[in-house]
Amino acid sequence: MLRLDTLYSNSYDLHRLVVTMTLMAALVSALGVSAALAAQIQQDGLQPLFERADYLGDYINSPLAFVFNIAQLAAGFCMLLAMFALYLLRFDTYSNYLAVVGSWVGLTIILMGIFPINYLEEHRLVSTGFLIGTFVLHALCLMARFNRQSLCPNPMFILSTLGIISASGLIIQLDWSTLDFASCDHSPHSLCWVAINMWMQVNVVVLWCVTLALTVSHIARSRQKESIYQLKQSDR
Fold it and tell me: For residue 51, what are the CA distances in angstroms to 31, 56, 130, 197, 223?
């Protein structure tokens, strides 16, 4: 019994860390975006829904910009910690690559919290790094689907496909000479494809984190059952 208790308490700490920190990253990010967006809508009506998501971090025009930016800092740190634990788990080569690229994404999220759109040049650099990082991250997930299905189940496969679409759209729309996007038509409720792709990217990343946490949790439970079974077999 002692050996089983030790197995439960010690063997899967890294799995728990990945699950907890990834869920925390998604929760903190969702709460920060929701709070800032709600305050902006209260001030300007529905127009913020048709503008770029990073405008919520504008200290001049966004009422809760500090909440949005602090949430990015916290979410990025949680994702960095989760990716470090995922790397230490060493599921396979793809999971290691996923952890490295995920760490890059987490770092750029932290930097976007430090350098919101008020710091235009710095924000352009780090947001472009985030864009490239998310594109590579989703591409790795799709590759892992054909190499290790357990690491990329159907929900994550769907989200990664949507993430590739939104990231590709933003990459096409990006002016690489300035690392910025063309200005949108700011007439009321006019469609801005940059804003649509950006909001899609934000939502996909949050949901992707939740799905990753559930996937790692499922893998941990499966491995735990296998280990317990092997331990009982060896005790016979």
Answer: 19, 9, 19, 11, 45
What's the CA gap between 206 and 22, in Å, rounded? 9
How much is the pLDDT for 4? 45
| CA dist., res. 157 & res. 155, Å (int) | 5
What would the pLDDT profile of 44-91 be if each residue is shown by its tens digit? 888 888 888 999 999 999 999 999 999 999 999 999 999 999 998 887
Which contiguous run of DSSP H or E holds residue 175? strand 174-175
> What's the CA dihedral at 71, 74, 80, 81 to 10 degrees?
-140
CA–CA gap between residue 54 and residue 128 (Å, rounded):
12
| Strand (E) or helix (H) holding 174 | strand 174-175
How many H-runs (helices) and E-runs (strands) does the chain carry? 7, 2
Does this model's pTM top 0.70?
yes
Q: What angle do CA 5, 88, 114 make, to 5 degrees?
A: 120
183 contacts 52 by C-beta, under 8 angstroms: no
Over the chain (236 residues), what is each successive 10-residue block's mean pLDDT?
47 83 95 94 86 91 94 96 90 85 95 94 94 94 77 87 93 90 68 87 93 86 63 57
Whether 159 contacts 204, CB under 8 Å = yes
Q: Where are the alpha helices (DSSP H) in 45-173?
A: 65-89, 93-114, 120-147, 154-173
**192's tokens:** 């801005």
Cβ atoms of 200 and 53 closer than 8 Å: no
